[in-house]
Design a protein that fits this description.
This protein is an alpha+beta fold and 301 residues long. The protein is built from three helices and 24 strands. The strands form six sheets. Strands 1-24-23-22 form a four-stranded antiparallel β-sheet. A four-stranded antiparallel β-sheet has the order 2-3-4-5, with no helix packed on it.
């Protein structure tokens, strides 16, 4: 038993899969969402004052935006041009690497009511027009609608939208769905506490409160990162980030492999504990039987 315990302690101590980054715990505590770009910079959005702040990996502030209404930050693919959309203000804006505004679009001038907007690139935006129940492909450079697709769904449930290679990805409060542009459903799966999409080249990721999942057409959804104790999680191309206990942790891709080993070791530990418990129980039962037999012999039977 002692040798087993020592072995398990060695396994757990040898797997260190996290790095604590120096960040102000108060800033992390008040963050509603977090984004990480591929340069290692962190962006925190606070719902308390509608602020959006950019920091380097050491916690030094690089830029800050203050909004008067809530804005939804699109996942940061290109840190040189960050897209933000406000349903309340019915506008989309782009900011540069210092969070200075470089462009703004007022949808009230051309559309009735836009529920969600997704900037595909620096030329085209996909819009969910709630009043007409349509998905619009809009070129904001020349202010023209390129395509219009009927989408008869409950727009109030929609949390995020992404369009890529003729596929429409929709996140609602309770599920993840994939459609083609005819809005024929290709895939659907239940989900909880979802926040937004992230696209890495051809890979579609779903960021939830404490889980990051990858969509694989042949397999469906596969969890690639999970921590039940995390407050917020995010990912860039090289690492995973999480806020837990108001501290910021970084996990490299190699760390994730170590976490898998750790979970395997935990499972082995549980199985070993069950086996030991079973053996001890059997030993105890045999001991009780022997005692009874001895007592019977003492009585002269």
């Amino acid at each position: 038993m002692k040798l087993t315990s020592l072995f398990l302690v060695f396994v757990f101590c040898s797997v260190s899969a996290q790095k604590v980054l120096p960040f102000d715990t108060l800033k992390l505590k008040e963050a509603r969402d977090m984004f990480a770009d591929d340069y290692g910079n962190l962006y925190l959005y606070r719902n308390k004052d509608f602020s959006f702040t950019k920091y380097d990996s050491l916690g030094k502030q690089l830029g800050k935006l203050m909004f008067t209404v809530p804005f939804k930050v699109q996942d940061i693919q290109n840190p040189l041009t960050v897209a933000l959309f406000s349903e309340n203000a019915q506008e989309m804006k782009f900011v540069d690497q210092n969070l200075n505004e470089i462009q703004r679009f007022d949808f009230k001038q051309k559309f009735s009511f836009i529920k969600h907007a997704y900037a595909e690139d620096l030329q085209q935006i996909w819009l969910l027009d709630e009043s007409t129940k349509r998905l619009l492909q809009y070129n904001f450079r020349n202010e023209t609608t390129i395509n219009s697709f009927p989408f008869d769904a409950n727009f109030d449930e929609v949390i995020d939208l992404l369009v890529f290679e003729t596929k429409v990805y929709i996140l609602t409060k309770t599920k993840f769905s994939v459609y083609n542009l005819k809005f024929e459903k290709l895939f659907e799966a239940p989900m909880e506490n979802v926040k937004r999409f992230r696209r890495e080249n051809e890979v579609i990721l779903i960021i939830a409160k404490n889980i990051i999942s990858k969509y694989i057409p042949e397999k469906g959804l596969v969890k690639i990162f999970e921590d039940p104790d995390a407050q917020i999680v995010d990912k860039n191309s090289l690492s995973y980030f999480e806020i837990k206990g108001n501290k910021l942790y970084l996990y490299t891709l190699e760390d994730i492999a170590d976490i898998k080993k750790l979970k395997e070791a935990e499972n082995q530990k549980k199985e070993l504990e069950k086996a030991i418990e079973k053996l001890e129980k059997e030993k105890s039962e045999k001991s009780d039987i022997l005692k009874v037999m001895d007592e019977i012999q003492d009585l002269g039977f």
